[in-house]
Every structure is written in C-alpha cells, then in structure tokens.
Amino acid sequence: MENFIRKIRFSTAIILSKLALYGLRLIGRGGTSLPGKIALKIYPEMLSALSGKFRIIMITGTNGKTTTSRIAAGMLDRTGMKYISNKSGANLASGLTTTLISAISLTGKPMVRTALLETDEAAFARTAPKLKPEIVIVTNFFRDQLDRYGELYTTLDKVREGIQGTPESTLILNADDSLCASLGQNVPNPVVYFGFAQNAYPEDNTEISSDAPFCIYCSARYDYSDKTFGHLGHFSCPSCGYKRPEAQIECTEVLGYDSLTSTIEIKIPNGKLSAKLALPGLYNIYNALAGTALGHQFGLSEEDLVYVLEGFECGFGRMESVKVMNREIKMILVKNPTGFNQVLRYLLTQTNHCCVALALNDKLADGTDISWIWDADLEILAFMQEKIRSFLVSGIRAEDMALRLKYAGIPEKRIKIEHDENKLIDEAIQSVKENETIYLLPTYTAMLDIRKIMKERYRLKDFWK
Amino acid sequence: MYELTICHLYPDLMNLYGDRGNIIALSRRCHWRDIDVKVVKVSINDEFQYEDYDIIFLGGGQDYEQSIIKDDLAKGKAQRIIEAVEAGKVFLGICGGFQLLGKYYKTHTGSEIECIGALDIWTHGGETRLIGNLVFSCDFLKGDENQKLVVGFENHSGKTYLGEGVKPLGKVVKGFGNNGEDGFEGAIYKNTYCSYSHGSLLPKNPALTDHLITLALLNKYPDFTGLSPLDDNFEKLAHDSMVKKLLS
Ligand SMILES: [Zn+2]
Q1: Domain locations in chain A?
Q2: How far is CA A76 from CA A29, A103, A297, in A?
Q3: A131: three-class secondary structure by DSSP
Q4: Secondary element (H or E) of residue A390
Q5: Which residues on B lie below 8 Å from A368 (Cβ)?
Q6: Which of A33, A369, A399 sits opposite B153 (nearest CB)?
C-alpha cells in the first residue's frame, strides 16, 4: 500500500510539474525553477528517484561554470550522445529537477540518457548525494559576491560535503587551486586533475594578491614556484607537505594569445594536442582544460578534442578590441542582467588596473525600460573598485547608471557622468596608464554610436565589425 | 543606534523589473545614516511573523507566479499580511504586489481571482498593456513641487480602482497610473504604500524612500525626531532628467 501511494505521489509530481512546464512555455516563459519546486514539494525524494535514469555530469565551482558547461556540452555533442542540460540561471535543486523532469516522459521513462548539470555550489551539497553523478567537475574557488555564501571556505565545505555523499563519482579538479585540489585528497573517488605546467602561463603574477595564501591543512603560508592568477599556481606547503598534485590534463605551453583568442598546447594521457581557443582571457584556458578532461574521459580522440575546443565561442558574444595610444579598448555589449553579470564576472578575473565606461540608452532597440540594471550584480564593481581607475557613465540614461553604481557601493566622487561620447573616450584614455585596459560596456544603440566615433577618430576600417 | 528589519516577501517569485532596487535603496539610505538594516527573505513555506519586521516589501510577478504563491498565502500569510497592514506596519507593494493586496483581480475573460484583501481596491484585467515612463505628484512628500514628483516606469495590463478609505499615492502627471482613466496612481492605506511604478521606484525618488524609512523608525522608536539629510546629487540628476524628458 505504502509503495503504491509513493508511486502515485511520484506520478502526480511528474504530471503536475510537466503541466507547469507546459504552462510556462505557453505564456512565453521558459520554465526554470517552478516546475522543479512543485515536483520537490509533492515528492521530496524526486532527485534520488531520477538519478538512476541518467548518466549525470555535474559542474560546480565559483567561476567559469557556464563556460565550462558549454565546452562540456560541445564535448558531449561530439561523442554523439544525446543529453539534456540546464540553463545557467537554473542551477539550484529546483532548476536541476525541472531539467531532469523535462527529459522524462509522463510515465517516468527518460528520453535522453545523459544530463549535464551546472550546479550552484551551495545546492551541490544537497543534490550531489542524491543524483550520484558519474562525473563531477569543480572549476575553482574564488571569492564571489561576499553576501551570497559568506566565506569562501564555507563554499568549499559545501562542495566537499556533496562529494562525501557520492564516493563513486570521478572528480575532475583544478590542480592549481589549493582549495579545489584538496577535494581530491584522501577520498575514495577516482580523480583527474587539470592545470598549467610549470612556467606555461605567459604572465608573471607572483605578486598578485591571493584568496587563499595559507595552507588549508596546517595554516602555514604556501610557497609558489609559479603562479597563474589569483591563488592558482604551483603551490606547496613547507610545513605539512601538501602541494599541487600532478595534473593529467595539462596546458604545457601558451603558443600565442591576444585579447580574443589563445593558442595552447595540451598534454593528455598518452598524447598531446594544440588548439586555438576563441575565448578571451587566459583564465578561460582553465575552463578549456576542464572540458578537455571531460572529453577525454568520454573517449574523444585528439582530433575531436581540438574540433570542439576550436569551435567554441565566447559566452557573451563577441568582444571587440582595439589598441589606442598603447591602451587597449575592449567593447562588450550589455543588454540584460544575465549577460551583464557574465561580463562583470569576466572583469573580476582581470588582474590589471582598468577603466570601466558604461553607456546606457533606452531607445527601442535597447529596451525602453532600463530597470534591468537593478537586477545585474553591479556590486561586483564595488568589490573590485581598487583595480578600477575611473568609472565613467554615458548614454541617454547615464544618470540612472550613475545612480546604480552609487547604490552598488561606489562612492559618488569616483563616478563621472559624460554624455558626450567623444569626451567619454578621451576621459577613458586619460584615466588609465599605458598597457592598461578600458572596458566599454554599452547597450545596443550606444554601441553603434561609439563604434562610429571610434571609426572616425582612429580610422578603423574593418576592425570593428 | 537605530535598527530596522526589512522583509522581502517572495523575492524568488515576485521580483520583476528590478524590484530588488527598492530593497537596495532602503538598505543603503539607512546604512549611510548608520541605521542598522537587516533584510530577511521570506518565501514559500517560510514562517512569516510580521511583528519581526519594520518594513515589508512585496514586488511584482507574472500571473503564473502570482497563482503559485496564492496557495502559500492561503496557509496563513494572507491573514498575517492583513494584520500587518491593519497594525500600521510600513508595507510597500509594487505592481503585482499592489494588485495582490487588493480584494480581487477580474481577468478580461471574466473570471475572478480572489486576492489577499488587505486593501479596499480591485483590479480588472485590460486588453492592452499600459507601458511607459511615468510621473506622478505626491502631496505628502516634503520639499518643493519638483521634489513632490515621483518618476518610474509602468508595465501592467490590470486596471486598478480604489474603494472607500484608500487614498491614491499620487496624481498622474504623465503616463497611465492605476487605470489610465481617473488620473490616480498607486494607493495609500495606513502605512501601506502601493504603486505601479517599477524601474526601481525608490532609488530615483529619495524623498519617498526617506518617507518610508521615517515611518518605520517612528513606529519602532516613538521619540525619533527625523532623518539626517544625505547628499542626493545623483538621485536628483536621475530624477530631474526623467522629469525634464517627460514634461518638457
Ligand atoms: Zn600545510
């Protein structure tokens, strides 16, 4: 009888949440968390019930989850496997549930066999033991928005707790991150590490401040023989001996890079490949390595790995870049909170000083309602403000953007409103030193205006396409 | 030292169009004056004891999300929201939150959805959406005529009407307001304030924000004498540029 009731509850949960999913699509909203919430409400053990139906890959960590998920998706595509994946905004328990339920029939049969789930770090602790993933990828641990989970170590502990509940999962971990790598110490799980070989990273960042300077086991200060960025690198503890583990998937050389791409050589077990990544920022190489580890795990050949790595494009659309007076100007379109947040997270990983110039228009092509700027996490800019030489705002709604920055926690005196885009560019160039970068973040029509000015001023022909 | 606790009701479900900007504005303007602020998120299945909070905020949601929170409201929260409003708690309802505090919502196909019933207001679904920048004038705000003007952005299909004992928040100067017919915008009942204006209502309208903070402090600290002034240069620029754009 009890069993029967449970079955009924399970079926009811599936049917109702599928109805909700259908309803949401009908009214033009992609269902993300609600259908899952409904299912979990009716049948709290839903995730455990669904776990056996899929081969599950979970991706977590503080930075690069979305990019890594997208590269991983490319890898799965290349294997020919059919799979389901969640949207990056739906990475809590309810969103994961929605994703899995959308891939099973009303009778509970899976329509695809594989699920790729980007998972929030806090939600990972609760969901991983239930989902029993075949593979877990952890990208890294950097300080995130401080108000979200508080301490970095709390976040790490959450992920560790999740891993303890799933001892059979293969772990794909960042070897260069002392926090992330510690997840692979003294656990029964098979572990694959990825990272940069000694001196393979082209920039010397040994002086850069670190989120985790002290040994996680004994609190002694780590020695570094090489650093990539933040606290990532070849660390070793002089006191207890904890050190960067050997990496099976390793970037052995950066053959070349510019602001849009990097060409790298990767060592894999019994092989080696080189690929040109269409991703900005050297930090994205880590995401590519994590994706390569997954592809290798699923048996992709070197040619296939290269195919996926080279075919992948940057998550927030093309970044345009130009050098002016020995300063780099990078322009990235912003148009909604999700995209804006990705750009802000990208800025967070930049190690050099820079200038941030925002241009907000409210013409039809931009959207006449600019309230979305309050949904984007501009607090990130306040968090990294010591790296930003000046904050400039422009566009028809410059005052609104200035106000948003002020309420994000940036002092009013550091923000300058400049409606004239020509002067905006002058100010931006003057505010940074040589070899530093200006990030121009315009909405659509503001981007068109700025592009036109840049073309005229610097006789740019085809560069700004 | 003064302390305020803000309750954000259903932040995961009722958070459209930058609603959280209102919470940010209330918190920052308190922080800048060394008033301690705690924000508590209360959603489905969470306890809601209104006595624990000094300001309660309910934002807008899509129809579907509003229908989901209905069940949760029926399990006791609706009753406690009514009590909170009657007890004179400072309550801010925006857009969908505004409609939900009323008696009912009648869709344009004729079916009637029961709402919380904390305010004597009701809403009829319209066939066209009332969208655009909005300016309305609030007599109760301190300052000159310009400071009495409140700016925002509205986007709603429901037309809301006010019953006995509920006053409008303001008179529409430009835009549609509650229903596009009677020239009123929003509602005030005791210390409950409602508006169709999102685009984050509070950051650009510091006089209104400070009015709500003052009411909350007076509720909690009867001997409270008044807020210290802040440098509102950017607030004023954002406010005035929109007023100028719409009224000139
Ligand atoms: Zn140690």
Answers
A1: 2-311, 318-458
A2: 27, 16, 11
A3: helix
A4: strand A388-394
A5: 131-133, 153
A6: A369
**A243 in Cβ contact with A226 (< 8 Å):** no
Q: Quick one: tokens of A197?
A: 């070989």
Rounded to whole angstroms, what are the CA distances from A86 to A24, A238, A289?
A: 16, 42, 21
Q: If 0-12 CB within 10 Å is exposed, 13-18 middle and 19+ buried, where does residue A386 land?
A: exposed
Q: Looking at chain A, how many residues does it have?
A: 465
User: CA torsion sign, A2 to A7 to A10 to A11?
Assistant: negative
Query: Chain B neighbours among A 351-390 (CB < 8 Å)?
Result: 368-375
With beta carbons less than 8 A apart as the criterion, state whether B58 and B100 touch.
Answer: yes
B203:A29 CB<8 A: no
pLDDT for the residue B29: 97
pLDDT tens sequence across A94-105: 999 999 998 998
Interface confidence, given as ipTM, is 0.95
The pair of structure tokens assigned to A419 is 């409606």
Catalytic residue list contains B95? yes
Distance from the Cα of A224 to chain B's closest Cα (Å) equals 41
Considering the domain B3-247 in this protein, what is its CATH number?
3.40.50.880
Q: What is the pLDDT of residues B227-236, one digit of tens each?
A: 999 999 999 9
**Are B21 and B39 within 8 A, CB to CB?**
no
Tracing tokens 């009332």 back to the chain, one arrives at B130
* HSE toward the beta carbon, residue B15, CA cutoff 13 A: 16
| Rounded distance between C-alpha atoms, residue B56 and residue B41, angstroms | 10
CATH superfamily of A318-458: Mur ligase, C-terminal domain (3.90.190.20)
* Helix, strand, or coil (residue A334): coil
- Distance (Å, rounded) from C-alpha A325 to C-alpha A22? 55
User: Domain A2-311, what fold?
Assistant: UDP-N-acetylmuramoyl-L-alanine:D-glutamate ligase (3.40.1190)
Chain A nearest CA to B215, separation (Å): 22
Q: What tokens does B40 get?
A: 């508590």
B193 touches B136 (CB < 8 A): no
- Look up the pTM and report it: 0.61
Instruction: Tally the C-alpha atoms within 13 A of residue A317's C-alpha that lie toward its C-beta.
Output: 16
Q: Count of CB atoms within 10 A of residue A45's CB?
A: 13
Number of helices followed by number of strands (H, E) in chain A: 16, 17
| A257 three-state secondary structure | strand
